């Protein structure tokens, strides 16, 4: 049979590693003839924009370069698949495209909303008597997918955020002036990525001195009091804050605009808090929004992250060939001092449109920092350095002509 694979949602440093894993496993299975790549996610299937990955990835060297390339090689989309009852033509177009190309299994690499697509398509194919398998491969730097210990892409993002925070600490400590530096980290509802800055303590760093997560109620007055308390001990106060933190009883960070999935568009917690500190405390203050750099900074990617991302993509092929459908592949962390994971699966419907929040038992009583217990969770995920192919002093990336 043939298979098809697509990528969706925000790019990461590891999503192409999962694509490489699907491709390599399919090519070596002896059961799959053509491996199609769908351009721009599920929209590529709806519009029949399919390419032969066997021609686009001609050898092992190209597959290895793909693994080390950030972002989504096949392009992405933010398309909310409607219910089959409301727009049956969309589902008919998808089924028609996959049947036309002889596809027996479809792999969707993405996050919460992508797993909604996996669950809906699997149910529709089953209802129509189609034997096409649909398997989800997790991806998100937010690390907020239920049913899995962690998600591919998170480890590399966490490593970048930690390293960048450490460099900001060095930069901010050179002057004798009192200063406050606010680092805004991605995370709309779940604070995993912001919380991961606590790993710096493993190397003896004290900062960030304050860490604020969207899971906790946030008060402007308490925030100012926290800073004043830290200023008694530190000239340069470093703060990590999730983009989704909301000031109590304030709409200054909210927006009436929603994206296609109904997610509220945010409007700059870092800059707002910078202005608050400047007005109420008056010391030197700056805010730094890490923005999209934390998603695709492959030059500081976690080797563990990329290796696991490739492996979970390969396992997805095994599960599909074994007849599984409507599932998302998951990591299960084994107990013990030495880090190791097993790969299993969960019903995609249990993941679709749901979020896994940072555990409150790892947040301190003051809700302004993360306990040391969290370090043991984060630290294994950022281990290992990736050898990057370079040309003229710059990384070489795998690129498709789209």
Give a verbal description of the structure.
The protein has 12 helices and 13 strands. Helix 1 runs antiparallel to helix 4 and helix 1 crosses helix 11. Strand 7, helix 9 and strand 8 form a beta-alpha-beta unit. The chain has a domain at 2-141 and 298-351: Rossmann fold (3-Layer(aba) Sandwich). The chain has 402 residues and is α/β, with parallel strands linked by helices. The two termini are 25 Å apart. It has a 7-stranded mixed sheet, with helices on both faces. It has a 4-stranded parallel sheet with strand order 7-8-6-9, with helices on both faces. Helices cover 32% and strands 17% of the residues.
Side-by-side strand order of the widest sheet:
3-2-1-4-5-10-11
Q: What is the makeup of the main sheet? A: 7 strands, mixed
CATH topology group of the domain at 2-141 and 298-351: Rossmann fold
Q: What's the order of the H and E elements?
A: EHEHEHHHEHEHEHEHEHEHEEHEE
Radius of gyration: 22 Å
Shape: elongated
Query: Helix- and strand-based class?
Result: alpha/beta
Tell me the distance between the termini. 25 Å
The share of residues in helices is: 25-40%
What do the pLDDT scores average to? 94
CATH architecture of the domain at 2-141 and 298-351: 3-Layer(aba) Sandwich
Strand content: 15-25%
Number of strands: 13
Which segments are poorly predicted (pLDDT under 50) over 5 or more consecutive residues? 251-255
Number of helices: 12
Report the CATH C-level class of the domain at 2-141 and 298-351.
Answer: Alpha Beta
